[in-house]
Amino acid sequence: MAGWDGLRVDLRRLLEESPGALVVFPHPESERSERRFRIELAAWAAEIAAALDAKYGSLVDLQVGAMTFPARQLWVSEQACQLRGDPAESAGLYVESSSPLSVRTGRFAHNDVLVTNRAEHEQVLFSNRSLTSAVTDNSGTVVGLYVGPSNAVRVGFAIEPHQSRPVPVLIGTASVVPDLGYAVPPGQWQLVIALHTENSNMLSSPLPLTITP
Predict the structure, then answer these.
(1) What pLDDT shows up at residue 38?
(2) Selection from 95, 147, 154, 114 nearest residue 130 by Cα
(3) Where on the tree of life does the source sit, at the highest rank (predicted)?
(4) What is the pLDDT of residue 180?
(5) Which pLDDT belongs to residue 100?
(6) Any idea what DSSP says for residue 18?
(7) Where are the domains of the chain?
(8) Are 142 and 83 in contact (CB under 8 A)?
(9) CA gap 104, 181 in Å, rounded
């Protein structure tokens, strides 16, 4: 059962035994005739990818986090791995963590950060329900991102002059540095948050981030 009949059995098992490991995959209840099946797995699921690769070989086209498996070639664009934007402070926007920021290696999390508007006018941050972010090292190089399905809904977070409000941020730890592996390893890192208004793209100052096992 090394073809689709066998693969669909393993996909059903993974859905039950390892929730969240499969990100994009052929539905196991469907009838398929492809010669190769594309499967995207979460950044923490490299061992699962290794088992699928060993069993099915060229039948599966595997991606783990932001890289192909087992070649560790980035499939995300170079642009996605670069931080572009003006300092948020130059527009009067300041970001601080409401509580210590922490996420498990290879996973993603939603946390609230406190955004303060020190300008004399209202500012509205736009996102798809959560601000995006990037994990960086001490030199400011991007080492990790969220990769996966995203919500297309556009939401605005209005902040009145000289007021603060909590805003959700999405933190992802899929590694974009092959030497680090598929997931940013545990340790102390930094988080840079992207802030988008109607006319500007900005970046927060780095915030401390702990990645746990």
Answers:
(1) 96
(2) 154
(3) Bacteria
(4) 98
(5) 95
(6) S
(7) 4-64, 80-212
(8) yes
(9) 15
pLDDT digits over 85-138, tens only?
999 999 999 999 989 999 999 999 999 999 999 999 999 999 998 999 999 999
Record the tokens describing residue 10, joined without a space: 């393993």
In this prediction, residue 165 carries a pLDDT of: 97
The structure tokens 């946390």 sit at 111
Residue stretches of the chain with pLDDT short of 50: none
CATH topology of domain 80-212: Immunoglobulin-like (2.60.40)
* pLDDT of 57: 95
Contacts 24+ apart (CB under 8 A), 195-200: 195/85, 195/88, 195/93, 195/95, 195/115, 195/125, 195/131, 196/125, 196/126, 196/127, 197/91, 197/123, 197/124, 197/125, 197/126, 198/124, 198/126, 200/85, 200/86, 200/91
- Half-sphere CA count of 93, side-chain side, radius 13 A: 30
The neighbour count for residue 74, using CB atoms within 10 Å, is 16
Residue 158, Ramachandran bin (φ over 0: left; ψ between -120 and 50: alpha; else beta): beta
Q: What is the β-pairing status of strands 207-212 and 187-196?
A: antiparallel
